[in-house]
C-alpha cells in the first residue's frame, strides 16, 4: 500500500494544520486513511490543543483501535487531554485485557480512575483479570471470545458470530462448552461454514483440546502456542471451566517483553531491579541501590582475580611480554563461556535434562571449543611470530588459548546446571559469574603454562 510510504513529518504537519483551521473533512480524510499504528503516532505528534479536538473529529469507536495501538505514555496523554465522556465511550468498547494491560503498566493513571469509566459488568471482568498473578495466563487473557453450547446448531452459531463479531477478539476459533460451562471442544470458522446448517456443534468439534490454565506462566503458554501453531489458546480454571482466550497478537507482545527481560537478566539485571512491587518504574536512586550489591560482589571477586598476578610475579619478570596478552586470554575466556552459556540456557528444560543429554551437550561444546581453540591459537601463533619474533611466547599463548577455550565451554554448560539445581535464576546468576570464573581460570592456566615452559 503506497500510502504507508509517506513523509510522516509533512503528513503530521498537515493534520495539525487541518485541526488548526477547523477543517474537519480534510482532517478525517487524511487521518482515517492511515493504519491504526500510524494514527497512534500521529496523535503523539499533535499539539496539546489539537489533541483535545480529537473528540470532535473522531468517533469513539474509531478511536478505540487507535488507543489500543498506542504506547502507554500516549494512552495516558489521551486520558489527560480528551473529555471524560469521550474516554468513557472508548473504554466501554475496549477489550477487557487491553484495559487491564493499561492499568498494570501505567505510571500516571490510577486503577480507580480507569475503572470509573466502566459499567459494573465490565468493572467486574477487568478486576477478575487484574486479580490473577502477574505474568500468568489469567492476567493476559481476554473474555471477548466466541463460546457456544454443544447442542447449538451451525445456523444458530453463525447468527451468534454475526452479533459478537465486531467485539470478539477473534472468531476464527469457536469454543464449545457443556451446560456447566466446562470446555469440551473447539472448532474453526472454516469447519462451521463447511457444515450444514442443522449440524450440532458437538458433532463437528475437536475434543483433543490444547488449553492453558489460568495460573500457567505466560512463557509456558507462549511455548505451547508455538509448539501447536495456534492463533489463540483457551484458558480454563482448575475445574476446566472456560475463562477466556489468549491470542497470538498478545503473545507477540509477551515475546518481546520476555526477550527484553531475558536480555536484562543475562546482564545480571533482574526485573525487580527496575520496577517495584506494584510494577511501577523505580527512581534513579532505587535503581542504583538495587544494583550496588551485585557490583560490590563482582568488584571483590575481580580484586581476587587481580591478585593472581602476584602469584606469578617471577614468571612475569622473566618474560614481560606475557603481560601484553593477558587481555586477550581473559576476554576470550569470558566470551566463549558466555556463548556456551547462551546455548545451554536455550534448552527448553534444564531441570529435566537427562545425563545422556548432558553428555551430548558437553560433547558438542567441547568439540566446538577444540575447533575454536585450535583456529584461534594458529592465528595468534602466526601473529606473535611475525610482530614479536618470539617462538616460546607464541607457543605459551597458543596452548593457553586452546585449553582456556575448551575449559570455558565446559563451564558454560556446567555452571547454569548447578545454578538451576540450587534453585536460582540461571539468567541472572549464570551470566556475570561465568565471565568471572572463565577469566580467573583462563588467567591461572596462562600463567601456569608459562611457568612450566619458560
Describe this entry's structure for a reader.
With about 450 residues, the protein is mainly alpha-helical. Helix content is about 65%, strand content about 5%. The protein contains 23 helices and six strands. The mean pLDDT is about 85.
Name the helix and strand elements from N-terminus to C-terminus, one letter apiece.
Answer: HHHHHHHHHHHEHEEHHEHEEHHHHHHHH
Question: How would you state the average pLDDT, rounded?
Answer: 85
- Shape, per Cα inertia axes: elongated
Into which percent range does the helicity of residues fall? 55-70%
Instruction: Specify the structural class.
Output: mainly alpha
Largest sheet composition: 3 strands, mixed
- Helix count from the secondary structure assignment: 23
Number of strands: 6
Strand order of the largest sheet: 1-2-3
Q: What's the quaternary structure here?
A: single chain
Point out poorly predicted stretches: none
Radius of gyration: 30 Å
Beta percentage is 5-15%
Q: Give the N-terminus to C-terminus distance in angstroms.
A: 70 Å
Key attributes of the depicted protein:
23 helices, 6% strand, elongated, 65% helix, 454 residues, mainly alpha, three-stranded mixed β-sheet
